[in-house]
Every structure is written in C-alpha cells, then in structure tokens.
Amino acid sequence: MKNIVILISGGGSNMAAIVQASQREDWAGRFGARVSLVIANKPAAPGLATARAAGIATAVVEHKAFAAAADPRAAFDAELAAVIDREAPALVLLAGFMRILTPGFVERYAGRLINIHPSLLPAFAGLQTHQRALDAGCQFVGATVHRVTPELDHGPILGQVVVPVLPGDTAEGLAQRVLSQEHRLYPRVVAGLLAEMA
Ligand code: GAR
C-alpha cells in the first residue's frame, strides 16, 4: 500500500476530503494508497484534530522553531523532509500549506509534490485570490491542482474546476463555494495520479 503525506497549516478541509476519499469503500480500489501522516507547521492548526479523529497519525514541524538558524527556511525544510521521508511517500500533498518551500525541498520531491490553489492558475497566484478576482471583474473563478515547482503557485496543471461569480458575491462567499469544489477536485486528481503510478 502506497503512503501519502499531507502538509497543512490551517483548517485542513482539503486534507479531510482526501482522507475521506481514501477511506471510502468505493474509492479504495482507485486510491490504493493511505494517508499515513498529516504534518502541520503550526501546532494550533485545527486540521490536526480532524486528522486524528479520522485515525491518521499527525506531526508538527513548527517553522517558528527554526527562526534562530543561520538559514531558517532551509533548516525548517530539512526537518520537514526528515519527517516526510520516514513515510517513503508516493505523494506529498500541500493542502492549505502556507509556507514557501526552498528549491532544494521541491527538487527532493520532484514528481511527487502536488498543491491546490484557489484560483484558475496562472491567474492570481499568491494570497487574496478571491478579492483580487472580484476586483478584476472576473465572471468565473475556480481552483487548480498542479505539480509544485520552485516558483510559488506555478507548475504543470493537473486539474481545474470553474466556479461562476454570482451577483453580490463577496470574497468570503466565493471562497466557500470554491472550497467546496476543491474538495471534489483534489481527491479526483490524486486518484488519477495514483492510478498512473500503479
Ligand atoms: C484552500 O482554499 C487552498 O486552496 C488554499 O488554502 C485553503 C486551505 O483550506 N491554498 C492556498 O492558497 C495555497 N496557495 P483548507 O485548510 O480547509 O484545506
């Protein structure tokens, strides 16, 4: 059985969607993999409790603990990699993991490192995607699952979902509607990748 490691920073709803898909009887054959570890860079990340409630092992690698290192980002990434590598994962999934990763880390997991971003990339990489899309007058927004490259929120696109903007939409309302579609998109793309690796 292949292992999947998921990295989170917050609520972890995308992580939960992937865990649920991996545990569903009718999906089990398609996944052929289990989420063996969820790692957060913040000890208070609410997604940690969600993962534990689903029977998934968790770990915290706190980025703040490396603030005094000569190269804090590299030191954090080295510890993160050490924890990930114990799982020998087929895939490392970023799910609301809000840290910029070093090129060395990205290179280490080349072909196995995947991210979800709440916009139709390459539009609106970075933060405040929904407000920026509303400000630009976009009529459609969405989410993208992509392979991770050293450049933030870039890399070959593996799947997208389109969400129409409705009259009177706020950034918060739009974020919720996009997020509920992310929960369908991410497991579907992961299942496809795992099937290719089988
Ligand atoms: C999701 O909307 C995800 O696409 C986004 O953070 C949210 C995490 O929600 N990720 C990024 O913005 C990455 N650049 P979740 O913790 O409930 O899955």
UniProtKB/TrEMBL annotation:
Pathway annotation: Purine metabolism; IMP biosynthesis via de novo pathway; N(2)-formyl-N(1)-(5-phospho-D-ribosyl)glycinamide from N(1)-(5-phospho-D-ribosyl)glycinamide (10-formyl THF route): step 1/1
Record-listed E.C. numbers: 2.1.2.2
Positions that bind N(1)-(5-phospho-beta-D-ribosyl)glycinamide: G12, S13, N14
Class of the enzyme per the UniProt entry, highest EC level: transferase
Keyword set includes Ribonucleoprotein: no
UniProt-listed InterPro entries: Formyl_transf_N (IPR002376), Formyl_transf_N_sf (IPR036477), GART (IPR004607)
GO biological process: 'de novo' IMP biosynthetic process
Pfam families: Formyl_trans_N
One Gene Ontology MF term: phosphoribosylglycinamide formyltransferase activity
Task performed by this protein: Catalyzes the transfer of a formyl group from 10-formyltetrahydrofolate to 5-phospho-ribosyl-glycinamide (GAR), producing 5-phospho-ribosyl-N-formylglycinamide (FGAR) and tetrahydrofolate.
Name this protein carries in UniProt: Phosphoribosylglycinamide formyltransferase
